[in-house]
């Protein structure tokens, strides 16, 4: 390498280091949003995301929480025993607002997923507020041959809240190959669902979904605050019909009863998403949801998918302990 080339490379590295520090300062110290940081620095939001991840990875930014966590550990162990889990993560939340719960549970999910990332990993991904928040706190690392499978269809209009957007963001962040259900998450009639799943590409995707190493999911309830109703994916008046049919919530946009069974309802016959029961053979199924109002839906989601890992908040954990325990068969 010539002296001139070496000098240019050194200057580029110095500029990148300065950009990383400025990005971290604006975001963590001045409290700007990622969009505001991108505008201030004249770079893309994706570049901001990667720079922030780099500051956490290389130790430029260190988040230290000083706490005696005996109570959280005890709550986690109680939850694992009560629900037959391999692992439970319980995070504190200052309140039960939608945004707070999504952010803290999403942070917990990001810590968990970042530790699982490795070469050749395949990840199936659902959607929801916690999973959207999760994408903001991932730790960057170089990874090879990683694949991401979106477990549900999307919307015909572009939106940050598109059900398929979480998988896209995860694949983009780690530069992984992405497999998507390129169809609306809800289609007009059952015959179209059948026709789409009969297509070779969709059959292959379903098999990929059943064979992922990790499935990262969220669940929804039937309240007006649930994303599926609040975002207009389903009409609010359909909640009553679903509730009358025995539903307590949805997993991958499939509505399930308190025992995790997919209910017989017209909405479930129109959904283009992986059936939650198809994930029961996946080695690690992770439910990431919080909030007291979702307790029944979380329990149903664990039963529907066979999930053995749960990431939730303290209030939801306590509410879950008041529900009947889950008896698991040995595996």
Automatic annotation (TrEMBL):
The keyword Transcription regulation applies. Keywords: DNA-binding, Transcription, Transcription regulation. It comes from Mesorhizobium marinum. Residues 70-322 form the Sugar-binding domain. InterPro entries: NagB/RpiA_transferase-like, SorC_transcr_regulators, Sugar-bd_dom_put, WH-like_DNA-bd_sf. The keyword DNA-binding applies. It comes from the Bacteria. This is Sugar-binding transcriptional regulator. It holds the Pfam family Sugar-bind. Transmembrane segments: none annotated. Belongs to the SorC transcriptional regulatory family.
């Amino acid at each position: 390498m010539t002296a001139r080339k070496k000098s240019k490379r050194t200057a580029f590295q110095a500029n990148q280091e300065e950009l990383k520090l400025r990005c971290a300062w604006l975001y963590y110290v001045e409290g700007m949003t990622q969009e505001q940081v991108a505008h201030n620095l004249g770079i893309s939001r994706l570049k901001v995301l990667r720079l922030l991840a780099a500051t956490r990875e290389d130790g430029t930014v260190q988040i230290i929480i000083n706490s005696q966590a005996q109570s959280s550990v005890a709550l986690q162990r109680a939850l694992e025993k009560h629900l037959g889990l391999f692992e439970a993560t319980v995070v504190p939340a200052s309140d039960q607002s939608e945004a707070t719960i999504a952010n803290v549970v999403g942070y917990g999910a990001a810590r968990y997923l970042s530790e699982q990332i490795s070469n050749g990993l395949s990840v199936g991904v659902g959607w929801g507020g916690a999973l959207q928040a999760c994408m903001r706190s991932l730790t960057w690392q170089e990874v090879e041959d990683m694949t991401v499978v979106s477990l549900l269809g999307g919307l015909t209009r572009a939106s940050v809240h598109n059900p398929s957007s979480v998988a896209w963001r995860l694949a983009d962040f780690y530069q992984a190959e992405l497999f998507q259900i390129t169809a609306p998450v809800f289609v007009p009639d059952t015959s179209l669902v059948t026709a789409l799943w009969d297509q070779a590409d969709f059959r292959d995707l379903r098999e990929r979904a059943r064979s992922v190493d990790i499935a990262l999911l969220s669940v929804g309830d039937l309240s007006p605050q649930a994303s599926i109703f609040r975002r207009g994916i389903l009409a609010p008046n359909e909640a009553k019909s679903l509730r009358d049919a025995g539903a307590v919530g949805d997993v991958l946009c499939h509505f399930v009863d308190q025992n995790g069974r997919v209910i017989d309802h017209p909405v479930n016959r129109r959904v283009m998403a992986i059936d939650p029961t198809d994930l029961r053979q996946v080695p690690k199924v992770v439910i990431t949801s919080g909030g007291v109002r979702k307790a029944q839906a979380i329990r149903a989601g664990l039963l529907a998918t066979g999930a053995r890992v749960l990431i939730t908040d303290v209030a939801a954990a306590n509410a879950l302990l008041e529900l009947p325990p889950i008896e698991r068969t040995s595996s």
